[in-house]
Amino acid sequence: MSLPQIDETKNELKLFNLEGCQANFAPWKRSERGQQVYVKLVRDDEESFLFVGENCILDAKLQQALIRLVNDGWNVAGELTCSFEGTNEPGIDPYVYQDPVTLELGKNLLPLLDPQQEAPLVQAMPKIRDEIAKESGLVPAGVRIKDNLRLGSSQYEILLHNSPIAQGEIFLDRFLAIGSFEQLSELEGWAAIEPTYRMKAKWIEANFREKAEKLGCILVGPLQVLLTHLKNIMLEAAPELLGLQDTFNLLSRLQITHPIVVNEFLQDNKKLRIVRRVLQELLSERVALNNLVTIVETIGDSLDDSSGISPVASDIAENCRLALARQICWSNLNPANELQAVVTGDKIDADLETLQRKLQENTRYDQASEDLSNKIVARVKECLQSAGNPSVIITSPHLRRFLSRLIAIDIPHMCVLSTSEAARSRVKLIINGTVEYKKEPDSTATEQHKVEDKADAHHSEEGNSEEAAPQESETSEEVKPAAQESSEEGGLLGIFKKVGKKKQS
Questions:
Q1: What CA–CA distance (Å, rounded) separates 324 from 138?
Q2: Which of 298, 386, 459, 485 pairs as cysteine with 494 (C-beta 3.0–4.6 A)?
Q3: Rounded CA gap, 364 and 299, in Å?
Q4: pTM given for the model
């Protein structure tokens, strides 16, 4: 039996390398690990590559070499990165490496990975990563997908660094109908909760689809339910997914176009760690990193202005938010291009300051602090519901971050703006209400009003001229405190509060 013939072809790879640069580039050894970066060059029908190094950074010599090649007629056609891990499965070492995000599927969900059915889940992953990159400015790592027969047959589980973070259940032969209790009660199906936004829903068969649409329900396919849940989890976990190497890679992309902005951070690991912490602070509040140049410039300015005192990353993040105020506000506009919000009242502000001061002095929560925080959160919830659930809360600059963290668990994804950020945004601002405590009836005040009413009835013959004077004085007293705000932020917040009171009345 003759052996099969092998057609041999010879492909020549032309590489440029700087003279005197002691770089060992392809081919590499079997056990070697690392990556090599090349700039692809094209001239007529020729193709070649300029070896850059292990990172996407062009130093002065490489830039001069690239300019010489361009002058010789070569055109830059792109960038090539070759990664090599020296193992059978690149990038995976079970002893030192864990997949950032893993998606495990039950037995009935494996058709989503079947190549004979075009593997719809695998085909959809690049689009999801692209959406995450556009919304957060962070290019996420790949998602590892595998089966897990210990799960329920229609269940899936999302793991972050090999630890479960979310779980759900979908049915490939049904649609998820989302709607009110009245709408869903007229549909036959399995009651469920939509996993991303926690809304009431039902899994219905395909023949009830037309009926559900007539009732006004939102219909979502099983694959879309899974992808939406996965996308939301990855956006929430973005601060944890951003590591030091990811931060370096993110900044290195700006090195060619903005070397002055990023060079000091790429060359100083201590400053690079500060950048990572600031970016994590921004991502934790869903602030996109798309305008990375402005963010890095603001970080550099904050470090220069620190006067020898090492600034806290959270304080630098507040400066970055102020620089990105227009972007943050515009991302929260409604379809009518309006920023609907509520503002915090004076008593709520006073309690927030008290609670913030207590927590700064004592790191532990005592019972009084816990009761006060629960009271504030409950009142914020009530006010948002009565105001039509606007997407923004506006408060004083020194309370913004504290209030955002206080309500993060009970009211997730709520945007908390400072008055300074709202003032810089130049958007149409609609104040729907003021977050304030409910007024409790005072028995002594009630008795006093009764006595005053009797006195007014006794002196009613004297006319209405005397009644006008106290009314005018009361009105002037109500307006006077807001008009006497001395600082710019306080004055602006005062205006917001007065507008909110008018809306409520």
A1: 16
A2: 485
A3: 31
A4: 0.69
Tokens of 247: 């931060």
The radius of gyration of the chain's CA atoms, rounded to the nearest angstrom, is: 31
**Parallel, antiparallel or unpaired: strands 190-193 and 338-344:** unpaired
For range 177-196, the mean pLDDT: 91
Q: What's the pLDDT tens digit per position in 230-242? A: 999 999 999 999 9
What is the per-residue burial (b if ≥16 Cβ within 10 Å, else e) of 356-366?
Answer: bebbeeeeeee
Handedness of CA 192, 193, 194, 196 (dihedral sign): negative
Gap between the Cα atoms of 181 and 19, Å rounded: 74
Backbone angles phi, psi at 365, to 5 degrees: -80, 120
Tell the residue number behind the tokens 């003021």, with chain if given. Answer: 434
**What mean pLDDT is predicted for residues 398-411?**
92
| Euclidean distance between CA atoms 479 and 482, whole angstroms | 6
Within 10 angstroms of residue 116's Cβ, the number of other Cβ atoms is: 6
CB neighbour class for 282 (10 Å; exposed up to 12, middle 13-18, buried from 19): buried
The β-bridge relationship of strands 190-193 and 200-205 is antiparallel
Question: Burial letters for 478-492: b for 16+ Cβ neighbours within 10 Å, e otherwise?
Answer: eeeebeeeeeebeeb
Alpha-carbon separation of residue 104 from 141, 156, 160 (angstroms) = 16, 6, 11
